[in-house]
Amino acid sequence: MDKRMRWVVLMVISLSVTAMAIDFMGPPTATLKKGQWRTDFTYHFSENDIELTNITIEGFNLGDLDVDEIEIQRYYATFGYGLDDRWEIYAKIGGADLEQDDISFSSDADLAYGWGTRITMNQSKEVDWGVGFLMSWFGADEDYSGSSESDTYKTSFDIDAYELQVAAGPTFKMQGWDLYGGIFYYMLEGDIDAKETGTDGGVPYSLTGTADMEEDSNVGGYVGTLMHLTKNIDAMVELAFVSDGWGVGGGIGWKF
């Protein structure tokens, strides 16, 4: 494989482990009372098209690249607290892994984490309206090495990025369960610095490069259910979509 193309593939792999994925949002309205705590375990699967922009190697701009059907799984432990009957905050930490069939790649789990808040703006007996905010970010170092005939290479990537999701919509209160959903805005910003050393035809070489990343589409919709299994135990199922991807997830939580 040409060195430049190999770099592009490795950049895609590095960025995709934790980026370019619709994350699990939950209801856009508060789910906790003042002083109440909540812990959840959630699983989320998404399939997205991703984009690298301004790919530059040794001053040579390779332009942009789209890669289709990146499959990402995320596993989170989430901890929430009710600041008020209408306002809660939460933090999440867990792992993420990915697969991409075209390049036959499957990653090990990598760290994923973030924080968010939910605010109920208007309450009534049958429906609440609110907004939710979720931010996740990562800074990671990824290393790859390989060989081709008598030549070898070692490539290192330094990644810094963050994702932001803002959702707004209703939560309809049913008998024993809630129906929620709405629209959301998604944004991703980040960059990657790369360096490679190796031999080419027995001659040592060193390369440096950079790339930017951003969302391919940033407006979508989602719908979910919050089922009250007992007084303190809830279960959630959720489906979200944008023009170039979709996600589905579920979780179970305990309030105390």
Blueprint (SSEs and pairs):
Layout: H1 3-16, E1 37-57, E2 60-84, E3 87-100, E4 105-106, E5 110-122, E6 127-148, E7 151-173, E8 177-200, E9 203-214, E10 219-228, E11 233-242, E12 245-255
Antiparallel strand pairs: 1-2, 1-9, 1-12, 2-3, 3-4, 3-5, 5-6, 6-7, 7-8, 8-9, 8-10, 10-11, 11-12
Rounded to the nearest angstrom, the distance between the terminal CA atoms is: 55 Å
Shape label: elongated
Task: Outline the biggest β-sheet.
Answer: 12 strands, antiparallel
Spell out the helices and strands N to C. HEEEEEEEEEEEE
How many H/I helices? 1
Question: What are the low-pLDDT stretches, counting only 5+ consecutive residues below 50?
Answer: 103-107
- Assembly form of the protein: single chain
What is the strand content? over 45%
Structure description:
The longest helix is centred in the first third of the chain and has 14 residues. It is elongated, with a radius of gyration of 21 Å. It is built from one helix and twelve strands, in the order αββββββββββββ. It is mainly β.
List keywords for this structure.
256 residues; elongated; 12-stranded antiparallel sheet; 12 strands; mainly beta
